[in-house]
Amino acid sequence: MTLTLSNSVAIIDSGIGGMSTLTYISKTLPSENIIYVADSNYAPYGGKSDQEITMRMFKIFDFLLTKKTKLFVLACNTATAASISNLREKYSYPIIGMEPAVKPASKITQNNEVGILATAGTLKSAKFAALLDTYSHDDINFHTQPGVGLVEFIENGDTGSEELRSLLIKYLNPLLKENIDTLILGCTHYWFIKDLIKEIIGDQIQIIDTNQAVANHVKNTLLESNSLNQTNLGRVEFWSNSNKSNIKEIISKYWINNNAEFNFMGNWQI
User: Fold this and answer.
1) Is residue 76 annotated as part of the catalytic site, yes or no?
2) CA distance 71 to 69
3) 35, 33, 45, 26: which is closest to 4 by C-alpha?
């Protein structure tokens, strides 16, 4: 089905972590109108059941369909693992999810020791287990580490405190002891602390995330459906249900694509 150019690309995350994905998509597709929904009042998703997350996605999708959305991006590994199958059954729109970059890491690693830092919700999911099973073999060892509490720091705008550094050291040390040469960031939030992670693990370890790959996937999907907007400059609308008084300041800190028009639409409650 050919969609009108006025329709928007929607990006959904449990909070503001998916702004890393938003940055890549807005730069890759500068003419697209984008609506970002931060479900911050329900973050993090890691401790919630698949059913709870799926119900949140249903409500957010229904809200976004009133905004003439043409394509959905789940910029959250946990939400993807918990709900994408049900979403694709219910909605007849392109839905692109996120998953840890296990396949790229398996091709890049030199010593076959790969670390994965992700939320507990992602690591315990059946979808992630199937992903590991697909790309694991006798030569490659994947070492997983849940990053409990990291999302909360980032949601509060903290990307460099000593408390955050100490927690990261606690989580990264077991991976370093496994002599990893590749680290997968299995949560979109973690992109915002990539520099701090690099300081701890050093330049010799490659860090992989999937943001550019997702942006390319969005572009190719729109091209295939003849619905890519290639005229004028796109507009970004940001919707949040956060109850933080400084949410606009936190959002401004994480928004780095100054070439796009950015509009904070205020609070919504669903």
Assistant:
1) yes
2) 6
3) 33
pLDDT at position 265 is: 83
Both structure tokens of 97: 């999810």
What would the pLDDT profile of 135-152 be if each residue is shown by its tens digit? 877 689 999 999 999 999
Q: Is 92 a catalytic residue?
A: no
Give the span between the Cα atoms of 46 and 204, in whole angstroms. Answer: 30
Q: Of 187, 205, 215, 250, which one is the catalytic site residue?
A: 187
Statement: the pTM of the whole predicted model exceeds 0.85? yes
Amino acid at 170: K
Is residue 229 helix, strand or coil? coil
Instruction: Go through 174-183 and write b for each residue having 16 or more CB atoms within 10 A of its CB, e for each that does not.
Output: ebbeeebbbb
The helix-helix angle for 50-65 and 77-90 (nearest 10°) equals 60
Q: Which of 9, 12, 35, 76 is catalytic?
A: 76
- In the chain, the N- to C-terminal Cα span, in Å, equals 29
Per-residue confidence (pLDDT) for residue 222, from 0 to 100: 96
Report which secondary-structure segment, H or E, holds 115. strand 113-118
Residue 239's H or E segment, with its range, is strand 235-240
Tokens describing residue 221: 């999907």
Give the pLDDT score at 5. 35
